[in-house]
Specification:
With 223 residues, the protein is α/β, with parallel strands linked by helices. It folds into two domains: 138 residues, Response regulator (Rossmann fold), CATH 3.40.50.2300; 66 residues, Winged helix-like DNA-binding domain superfamily/Winged helix DNA-binding domain (Arc Repressor Mutant, subunit A, Orthogonal Bundle). Helix content is 52%, strand content 15%. It contains twelve helices and eight strands. The chain has a six-stranded parallel sheet with strand order 2-1-3-6-7-8, with helices on both faces. The chain has a two-stranded antiparallel sheet with strand order 4-5. Helix 2 links the parallel strand 1 and strand 2. The longest helix has 15 residues. The termini are far apart. 31% of the residues are buried.
């Protein structure tokens, strides 16, 4: 039972049965992962997330009865512990941005290698954001120029030097433990700094902070 409790419990939402079956076979080759449910429609997805309460949901953006984008908020409301990872063949950056804004923790294109998906599953399950570097530029389009609004400048001026350091390291993709090791402070202290940063910048989560930091020059945009 102890081993089972460590499994990443996954739900697959895709309107093609062959893809669902293939994904299941791929995922369950990893002994740390188990597919607990599969759905082909928005309606099925919502019902199954209530029943199975998966740790992670792999979601296609185009489903048999509608738009996968539309159900992301409902899925995360139904089970706040379920993290959504979009797996899509749609290469529309506007759709990708909207998916992130609606609560998805990551995006993987179907053309990527299988190992990219498995790595994304692990990272998102750990609470990290997963966005391929090749997609970062388009996702940040129109967000990489400093805002001219004075209120944003006021928020940024309220940050301490240490908070700016933490933001910069978040922008590099470091986890709280890694940030603590880099700055020689405890992981708990890093968490406190991030809580203060979220409040001062009026962002609600790590992803919003990363986008804000890139937009306002608080972190370097990946090349």
């Amino acid at each position: 039972m102890a081993v089972m409790s460590k499994l990443i419990r996954i739900m697959i939402v895709d309107d093609h049965a062959v893809i669902r079956t293939g994904l299941r076979m791929l995922i369950e080759q990893d002994p740390t992962m188990k597919v607990v449910a599969m759905a082909g429609t928005c309606e099925e997805a919502v019902e199954l997330v209530k029943k199975e309460m998966p740790d992670l949901i792999i979601l296609d953006l185009i489903l048999g009865d509608g738009d996968g984008l539309s159900i992301i908020p409902e899925l995360t409301r139904t089970n706040p512990r379920s993290k959504v990872l979009v797996l899509t063949g749609v290469q529309n950056s506007d759709s990708h941005r909207l998916a992130i804004r609606r609560g998805a923790m990551g995006i993987v294109l179907k053309e990527q290698a299988a190992e990219s998906l498995l790595k994304a599953i692990r990272k998102v399950h750990e609470g990290e954001v997963w966005i391929e570097r090749s997609m970062m530029g388009s996702l940040l389009q129109n967000l990489d120029k400093p805002a001219v609004e004075n209120p944003e400048e006021r928020k940024i001026r309220s940050l301490t030097d240490r908070e700016r350091e933490v933001i910069g390291l978040v922008g590099e993709g470091l986890k709280n433990k890694q940030i603590g090791e880099r700055l020689f402070i405890s992981e708990t202290t890093v968490t406190h700094h991030l809580s203060s940063v979220f409040s001062k910048l009026e962002v609600s989560d790590r992803l919003e902070l990363i986008i804000y930091a890139f937009r306002h020059g608080l972190a370097a945009v990946p090349k």
